[in-house]
Fold this protein.
Amino acid sequence: MSSLSRDEVAKLAGLARIEMSEEELVSLSKEFTVILDAVARVQEVASADVAPTSHPLSLRNVFRPDVVVPSLSPEQALSGAPAQEEQRFRVPQILGEE
Amino acid sequence: MIRSTAAQMAAKLASGETTSVTLTQAHLDRINSVEDKVHAFLFVDEKGALEQAASVDAKRAKGEKLSPLAGVPLALKDVLAQKNKPTTCGSKILEGWLPPYDSTVVANLKKNDIVILGKTNMDEFAMGSSTENSAYGPTHNPWDLSRIPGGSGGGSSAALASFEAPLAIGTDTGGSIRQPAAVTGTVGVKPTYGGVSRYGLVAFSSSLDQAGPCARTVLDTALLHEAIAGYDPKDATSINAPVPQVVQAAKDGNVKGMKIGVVKELNGDGYQPGVRARFEEALELLAKAGAEIVEVSTPNFEYALAAYYLIAPSEASSNLARFDAMRYGLRVGDVDGASAEAVMNLTREVGFGKEVKRRIILGTYALSSGYYDAYYGSAQKVRTLITQDFTQAFTKADVLVSPTCPTTAFKIGEKANDPLAMYLNDIATIPVNLAGIGGMSLPAGLADEDGLPVGFQIMSPVMKDERMYSVGAALEAALLSQWGAPLLDRAPALEAGK
């Protein structure tokens, strides 16, 4: 039986950049026991001789001509920004201050 | 007028019997009178729709050559970007966002002068089968307001079934067009993957997502299909080939000599008796219309649901990483000294709903080092096996058929706390997405036990979408002559009471 502990869910939430309450962590951990059991069934038939499919179309390297086409203006590109400064996205501190 | 088909509306517009402004206003009035019960829309663009309608009328007055659906109104699922109109995907994280560009589907609608009435409700980021996962409240099924209209495209299906719009756009990742169509007695088509551009469709699971047409008749669906389909250089996964001739197929509705394969695995245990009864009757009608009914077996379909609930969340966990509070959308906790990471964590906690978080965590797990091969890798192999099952089945039949869903519409709240029971709803629709083929759902009648609509699913090989329209049109015609009137005439009137 597969399961995920509260601590494992907390680690995944950190990787996925989602703050989670204690209550959410515990309830997700319980749900995952059931969900993982259901999805683990894929292992029953996924033998080594079966090739994986990542995509329904067998496309590779789709190119287009390298010509200039109209694009968004800086104002349009910034129109949804939560904060902006000097025609740039203003973001919170990325590196620690030391 | 609002109960006509889109094709009838288009004919009246072409003959000058009515105008697009009149037709659009009639639908806006209908929306005003029933929307408090149905809640199909997240945004009604009264001004924009009437302006667009007036411009179509002006073009027509000048004698310009117009497209077949010019001037007919449509409801757009809120997962497709429309320039300067709210596009939320049913999520708080995109509340108030105005896209600075049009998706290709919207550009095609505008090019065809189809009038966009507004944006329809959906499960957040298209994750769900009931529209209960919308951050803006559920949509109600016009057949019974206490029941779900399907999902994720429940807003689009409810808008059609309540005569708020004759046409709608949906998107289908695991059944989000077909299951809502089934439970509301409307028609919905998931075209072949790559048949309709995904540019500007907010991605949930990129290798499965496909936008498609929804309407109340097979012909209307075909007309909309041809309006939105076609190669798009902006979508690298768009198929560079002519659009299948679906309108002609829908007009002919000819199934003589066609082989229709009944999928053995998509029936039986777990399927409601009324669903099975309507399905069996539909098969008899198709046989009478000249089709040959054969049985096909697809042994790996029983693993489709498990594969889907690994592949879709995996892709979602990656796609939804773009909602990082930096460039657009919600930003929470941006106080002095807060780090970007802390702001991301807080924003995504507040901005995403429970199901979206559940799937992001599941996908993150399935893709994580040490588990990748056991989960995501195995699911990709199952995908190969399912595609092989389809290839094999299509050597024996021109199209495959099954019930669209195991049951009719369930009650709002009934499965909200049981994710696995909710996922089981998609058992018959998911294989189509994994293989990238076409799928249609059309009404097959009402289940005896609850009087609710039952969907009939038709599946066609890659880029042979016209086949499902041939079969759909033949079945629709046979059923209509049996019923004497469209199925939706039996739905309760929303104006009176309740």
Observations:
- The first strand of chain A starts at residue 84 and ends at 85.
